[in-house]
Amino acid sequence: MDKQQALILKEVQRPLVLGRRPVPEPNGNQVLVRIITAGINPHDQKGRDRGVLVEKYLPHAILANDISGIVEKIGPDVQRFSIGDRIFGQSNILSGGPDQAGLQQFCILDANFAAPIPHHVSFDKAATFPVNAIASFIALFSSSGLHLAPKFLGHDLDYANEAIVIIGGGSNSGKFALQFSRLAGFGKIIATAKVRSDGGQSLRDFGATHIIDREAADVEDQIRAMVGDELLYAFDTVNGAYSGGVSHRLALSLLSTTKTGSLATLVRGEADPAIAATKTAGFKKNQVLGVSDLHQELAAKFWRELPGWIENGELKPLDFEVIDGLDAIKVNNLLDDYRDGRAVTKTHVHPDHRDSILE
Ligand SMILES: NC(=O)c1ccc[n+]([C@@H]2O[C@H](COP(=O)([O-])OP(=O)(O)OC[C@H]3O[C@@H](n4cnc5c(N)ncnc54)[C@H](OP(=O)(O)O)[C@@H]3O)[C@@H](O)[C@H]2O)c1
Q: Which residue has its alpha carbon closest to ligand 1 atom 8?
């Protein structure tokens, strides 16, 4: 069996190490991708340091699920792609195992959870979409999230007179939540974020209609002044390790006390009982797992539509930095930055293919 280079997690809380592992074969509706860009996200640090979602694959676990690259081989049932296509996709962290992960030269993707990269879009820009965009898409539109039913997805609800609050609008997931809220037609899209020297313009470009400085002492009062006691939709994207549960409490607190509102979150967290008790009409609170394979129908729609949304300018890519090669030191340092709460720009790894020995 041909081998490839990979950054391997052998043990939790140990650094990733450069090693070799087999190049997988695509089955059924799978493709083998020659990885050009593998994007790293906060959950990769949780995987390395706590075994989150990858423990069962130790000592051969591989991290990273934002993938872009070139189709190298196709499984017998693949109709959507041909060898040589430029594609991007989300590898399946739940059941795909190390074959479906990015910190290596080649990986498997399910054809349903991948899409052709629009012509004018680079591999790097394309790789900013998969994990963060699908997480926010599922948070807003699946029944396990806010369950919005907007016109752009073929439903008939109109949100022009509604507000949505995105706690962590400046996070990578939050930027997609802003863009999907704009596509859904919300009248008020309120983001909490650090206000930088552009005065929040970059988040307005992503769709925010109002930006509340997340460091202000009166964040809740400012938002309540805009939404009154009418807010039905809130989405908390903030990494709980940074906010200590504050973002969950804020989001829940903002929901209407007299109408049944919904809160979607990306990380686990209990509803504060004192705040929950004020919601006389109850509320819904769902932690979302933004994995395509878990939401097959909605995810397939997402992957069909995604290139068009990008081509029409309805979805913009995120900023990113690049690590050249499967550089264990640089990747481990980046994961340390996530672990230690340092500000991180989304980072891509470019596996080196010069020594590729795939036939
Ligand atoms: N469940 C899932 O499927 C899923 C999917 C994707 C991500 N996640 C999780 O969701 C979390 C966010 O992921 P990400 O990739 O979007 O993270 P990220 O972009 O790395 O988030 C960092 C940003 O969050 C903002 N932030 C930090 N503390 C905040 C606070 N107290 N209030 C408001 N904003 C705050 C900051 O933006 P500003 O400085 O600009 O305000 C910061 O730059 C992570 O824990 C990740 O593991 C879960």
A: 266
Asked if residue 53 has its Cβ within 6 Å of ligand 1, the reply is no
Q: Is 173 in the pocket of ligand 1 (CB under 6 A)?
A: yes
Are 161 and 232 in contact by the 8 Å Cβ rule? The answer is no
Going by CA atoms, what residue is nearest to atom 34 of ligand 1? 168
pLDDT digits (tens, 9 = 90+) for 236-263: 999 876 667 889 999 999 999 999 999 9
Contact between 323 and 336 (Cβ < 8 Å): no
Q: Which of these CATH numbers, 1.10.1760.20, 3.90.180.10, 2.60.40.1120, 3.40.220.10, describes 3-129+319-350?
A: 3.90.180.10
Domains of the chain, by residue range, sit at: 3-129+319-350, 133-287
pLDDT of residue 242: 67
For 334-355, what is each residue's pLDDT tens digit?
999 999 999 999 999 999 998 6
Of ligand 1's atoms, which has the minimum distance to the CA of residue 41?
15
Match 């313009």 to its residue by tokens.
Answer: 201
Q: How many residues does the chain have?
A: 359
